[in-house]
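tool=predict chain=A
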Amino acid sequence: MEDKSVAVDVGLRDAVLSGWYQAQTGELFQGLAISAADTVLDVGCGDGGSAHFCASRGASMIVTDVDATKVEATKRLLASIPAREIRAMVSDSNPLPLEDGAASVVISTEVLEHVDDPAQFLSELVRVGRSGARYLLTVPDPVCEALQKHLAHPSYFAKPNHVRVIQREEFAELVRAAGLVIERRASYGFYWSLWWLMFWTTRVDFIGARHPVLDNWARTWSALLDTPQGATVKRVLDSFMPKSQVILARKP
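tool=predict ok
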C-alpha cells in the first residue's frame, strides 16, 4: 500500500465492508442493486464515486451538484465508461431542472445537512422519482457531528457547509413526510469519525491530507480489520459512533 493513498485505500476497504460498492451483486449499498435498466439521479454528486459505480453497471446517469467544478470532474470520470447516457447539470435543486418521474433511482449522500429547506429539497427528490423509485439518502450522524463541534474549524458548521445537525429520528421523519416508505436504516463510518477528529488537530490541508497521525490511524484501522474479531469490532464501533446515517426508501 502506497503511503500517498493509505487513508483513501483503507477508507474504501472500510466502505465495502459497510455495504458500499458491492461489485459481485451490483449493489451500490447493500439492498440497492443497480442495473442497466435504471436511470440514476445523483443529486450532489461530489467526486462522482457513486455515479461511477452506477454507470459501470450500465445505468443511464443524471448527475447534479451546486459546484460546477464537481459536475465537470464527474463528467470527466464518467467519460471513461463508454456507451453510457450521461446528463450533467449545475443546480441548487430548488428546483431540479428535470421532468417529473425522471429517475428510477435517486441518490443524495451528505447533502441534506447543507440545504436551507430540507423538506423542500426532499420534495424535489420525490417529484423527479418515478412510481416505485428507490432512494439512497445519507446525512452525517449527530454523535459524530457533536464531537466535530469541539475541534472543527468554524467554517465546517457554516454555509456552504453544514448548516444543521440532523438527529436520527428527525431524518426518518423528514423522509416519511416527503412521502417515501423507509425500507432500511443503517449507519457506518467510525473510521472516518476518528479520522476527522485527528484531521482537525493536525491542521493540514484537506486536499491530499497527509500527516503521521492520519497515516498511522489508517494503518491501525486496517490492522484491526485484519484481526479475527475485526469485523465484529467494526460493527460495534460503527453503531456506537458512525460518521453517517443511511436510509433506503421507496416511492409508492
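Strands lie at 20-22, 27-29, 32-33, 39-43, 60-65, 86-90, 103-109, 129-140, 181-188, 244-250. The mean pLDDT is 94.
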